[in-house]
Design a protein that fits this description.
Strand order of the largest sheet: 15-12-14-13-17-18-16
Cofactor: FAD
Oligomer: single chain
Organism: Lactiplantibacillus plajomi
CATH topology of one domain: Uridine Diphospho-n-acetylenolpyruvylglucosamine Reductase, domain 3
Keywords: FAD, Flavoprotein, Oxidoreductase
CATH class of one domain: Alpha Beta
Protein name: FAD-binding oxidoreductase
């Protein structure tokens, strides 16, 4: 991509438009702005801009468009697919200063936020006001804009849906600097193309989300959990569709196996509660009445016991529930600590195919002589699998990684699934999306991209 205007000229125009404090160049740009949590994809931007308002974002976009300079948007940089890496340099739009919660609309059960607000900040704010912001991705320091960019899911998606289901309205800046106000305080909308949904999950390749109106709901008065051990992972996973068919919808249904528990015990140097099983289901249930929640968890416990569970432990104290879920939240760190380097697949399959998919990963690990530990949100079929380098030399591991990823994604498609359930495609997973998608689907995505970003300036090299 050729930049038609020199970087120095663009940076001077940006300083004039936003002030010197909002613009960084040269040695002011550290390596942190050139990568996300994936780490293996890195490239520093030429200019970093930190806007505070939608108007300032529009000014940046207009200048980037005129200069034909790449423009990449970054939140907290917690992504795992190189999605916010400015692979062609240019301008990096750091949204961290757009971190204000604009207000809560209790009558319409919505909250209005800037895109740089962190998930944990919004969740705590809503809870303090007596409300629940339902999306619950594992990385709590991720920004709301980043969650919207990837349509992030998380543990509560089985009951409350992914981020898309909680977005009522968006403010989006186009590459030409136009400001779009999409959606609104309405629950229903059949007024033309649903452009709001087009931008959700587009990973900053079609426009820049600057504000969002998000759905909240009254905070559940009661919440409890169940830890269900099984002697066989297939029995655990085959039980999940039966749970979903029971008429009782858990808030979360998580799955993990003995090897993941062992990595966590070594990492934390403590015993996991009720360790020793081959596999576990971990559920939460919430509601407004104690009696209803109690009846629901008793029913689900009996269902699991009737389908091969060896026991059912009710996490009926805040301390016990917190301890088990704190362990679940640190499984990723534990696996990371057990190896030299790793990469992740977050494939998603239909819920009734999770047993077949996990069985395939076991066979693949033996076949390729590589560790593939994992865990997942099996209530919605989303599995997180980690391919570990261990003692392999870098060149050998890279080949093995590609072989394993290709096999995993091909299997997920064969089972009716998709390449990514919640992390997105970004830079790192493009080849797998291309290889597992219909040509007509990829062509349609490219035509949308061409229509909304004809010079390929917005987050280039991502998705398609």
């Amino acid at each position: 991509m050729s930049v038609t205007t020199p970087i120095k000229s663009v940076s001077e125009q940006l300083i004039t438009a936003l002030g010197a404090q909002a613009v960084r160049t040269g040695d002011q740009i550290t390596a942190d702005w050139g990568h996300d949590e994936l780490g293996t994809v890195a490239h520093r931007p030429d200019i970093v801009v930190t806007p505070k308002t939608t108007t300032e974002v529009a000014k940046v976009a207009k200048l980037a468009s005129a200069a034909k300079m790449p423009l990449t948007t970054r939140g907290s940089g917690t992504g795992l697919v190189g999605g916010c890496v400015p692979t062609e340099g240019g301008i990096l739009l750091d949204m961290s200063a757009m971190n204000h919660i604009i207000g809560l609309d209790e009558a319409n059960l919505t909250v209005n936020v800037q895109a740089g607000v962190q998930l944990k900040t919004l969740a705590d704010y809503a809870q303090d006001k007596g409300y629940l912001y339902a999306p619950d991705p594992g990385e709590k320091t991720a920004t709301i804009g980043g969650n919207i960019a990837t349509n992030a899911g998380g543990m509560r998606a089985v009951k409350y849906g992914v981020t898309r289901e909680s977005v009522r309205a968006l403010t989006v800046v186009t590459i030409e600097g136009q400001v779009l106000h999409l959606g609104g305080q309405v629950v229903k909308n059949s007024s033309g193309f649903d452009l709001k949904d087009l931008y959700i999950g587009s990973e900053g390749t079609l426009g820049i989300v600057t504000e969002a109106v998000l759905k909240v709901s009254p905070l559940p008065k009661v919440s409890t959990g169940l830890l269900i051990p099984f002697d066989d992972f297939k029995a655990a996973l085959i039980t999940v569709p039966k749970i979903l068919q029971s008429g009782i919808l858990p808030t979360a249904v998580e799955f993990f196996e003995a090897d993941t528990v062992k990595y966590w015990e070594a990492f934390k140097k403590q015993a996991f509660p009720q360790s020793g099983a081959a596999a576990y289901l971990l559920m939460t249930l919430d509601g407004q009445q104690d009696a209803v929640v109690e009846q629901n968890y008793e029913t689900l416990a009996e269902l699991c016991l009737d389908n091969g569970a060896t026991d059912a432990y009710v996490l009926d104290t805040p301390e016990l529930k917190a301890n088990v879920w704190k362990a679940r939240d640190s499984f990723l760190e534990a696996i990371q600590a057990s190896t030299t380097t790793m990469d992740e697949a977050d494939a998603v399959v239909p819920c009734d195919q999770t047993a077949a998919f996990v069985s395939f990963t076991h066979d693949l690990a033996k076949q390729e002589n590589v560790r593939i530990p994992g865990f997942g949100h099996v209530g919605d079929g989303n599995l997180h699998l980690y391919v570990c380098q261990d003692d392999y030399a870098d060149d050998v591991w890279q080949k093995k990684l590609m072989t394993v990823f290709t096999a995993l994604y091909n299997k997920s498609i064969e089972l009716g699934g998709k390449v990514s359930g919640e992390h997105g495609i970004g830079y790192a997973k493009r080849q797998y999306l291309q290889a597992t998608s219909d040509a007509a689907e990829i062509d349609t995505m490219q035509r949308v991209k061409q229509a909304l970003d004809p010079n390929n300036l917005l987050n280039p090299d991502k998705i398609v």
